[in-house]
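Reviewer 2 asked us to include a model.

Predict the structure of this chain.
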Amino acid sequence: MAKRDASRAPGATPDQKETGNDRKSSFGRASFGRAGTHFAEKRSGWQVCDCTCLRLRKTSRIVTQIYDEALAPLDLTITQFSIMAHLFELDGCAIGRLAVLLVMDSTTLTRTLKPLEARGLIESRVSTQDKRRRALHLTPLGRSSFEKARPLWHNAQRKLGEILGVAEVEALNSRLEQTIDGLGSLAPRLGD
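Predicted model (structure tokens):
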């Protein structure tokens, strides 16, 4: 029986050596090498690791885990925190407008709002400008919870800066804003 090269991940071909990025990350989740070593074998000239959407979704999941772990002591997710942050700045925002700002469809947003409403952190009232629309507001408990969550969010921001480097995070944010602006006209109108 042939011995497995100790520098290769289990199941890897001889040219797929384990990199430092293939080990467990500091927050307990498996991470993957830059080249997508788990999908390195080519079939028909196509590689799933070449998919931009896959890369963005993987990155999004990892970053979301960092923020969700930071906000866990207050039983909030980063999505819930983002909603509360928008309502902190835009008190009385209509559900449709908030969905557009968050690039979410109204149905998903409504489903995400339910736990916040059940906990008494936000409330939905008839809009004073248009009686056919509902306006969202942070409750006093919601404002207090948001203020308590802000330092935890800052800790997640700081952790991301420590992992990637502050300059890299700033460059990433700038590039993401450019990408969002560039793709914004292609996105379907959400929240209507």
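Helices lie at 52-71, 78-89, 95-102, 106-118, 140-164, 166-184. Residues 140-164 form the longest helix (25 residues). We have added this to the supplementary material.
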